[in-house]
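re the bet — no i am not wrong, look at it urself. input seq straight from the record:
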Amino acid sequence: MLLASILPTEPRKTRVSNRDASDTKRPVFLTIHRSSVYILTTVAILAVDFPLFPRRYCKTELTGYGWMDLGAASFVIIAGWTSSLTSSPAKNSRSGSSALSHKAIKKCTPLFLLGIIRLLTNKGLEYQEHVSEYGVHWNFFFTLCFIDGFMIGWRTVKEFSRDFVKGKPVNGFMGLMMMVSYQIFLSANGGQDFIENGDRRCTKNYTENWTMCDAFYANREGILGLFGYLSVRLLSEELGRFCFLSTQQHSVADPSSMRISSFLWLIHLIFTTGLQIPTSRRSTNLSFVSWALSHNMTILYAIHYVTASAVRGHDNEPQQTPRVLHAVNQFGLAVFLLSNILTGLVNLCLDTLHSSDWTAMIVLSFYVSLVCCSALLLERLHIVN
């Protein structure tokens, strides 16, 4: 983050591409929030391998709260917020929806391939992993791929019935119904116990060949967790339309964001205290979804308030994003992929579990600098081309 305060804001205006033009439609406070999530996630996925990293910030095994639990949910939430600015039902035409679907299909393929590559490298190199996170073979790239695939189908359905759904909060309704149904399965039908304590195979004879049922049992956290993440995506997109589309210039922080975050915290309190639903990242249950949305809405409002206050009295001057944050935001997937590759390389070359604090700080400093400089290089090449 030190680089962000040193380098000039916004890249040189040499040539503006389509991607740059689309970025200008995104509020500055959303860009800062999005890039901050990428950078914090980049730091966490390597820092957690060192003893220096506080264990209380790690992902929870069963229930509770952990700083790293927010990472995956935040990725899905900011994707929903970003999509809300570019796929408004009021502004989309049939051709625009088709173009958006084609873009999403192109996005699914690399995510699926990245998931396969991560699976093969993890198993081939015997890289340390926790099966309680997503399962034996599943990983977050598969989750992102299936979410994008679902959104393609969902937008197609809305496009064919756009006269009926126009102006209605169908995303919010669909997300809420999906989440409530999933929570009923978890609480009333033994779903939570199955996720936490179930066997990794259907059959008791482990010498038999694997079946589809065995694959489901082995990866139940990742597969069933899709319902929670899909709900998060739909709800965040609905919240984005409500909060962002009316405040494009955002010279004053919109109090509706604060009211929504306060309401979400109240809902989360009711779920956890009143209904006794413990927060579970492993199952992405109702309490986890409400907590992730509440946390991200609160942080977003805080960033919005600070950025709006910084330009108060200078309404004619456009808000600017620090150059590093702009670059990380623009090439978020590349940054995330690079950080995963570097994390694997560091663990292969260094015994991170027994490294000193000084070693950890030096490695992490070079690691974060390399990731940020790579984002700046990608941005510069993108502008030149």
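see?? The radius of gyration is 21 Å. told u. also The longest helix spans residues 94-125. so pay up
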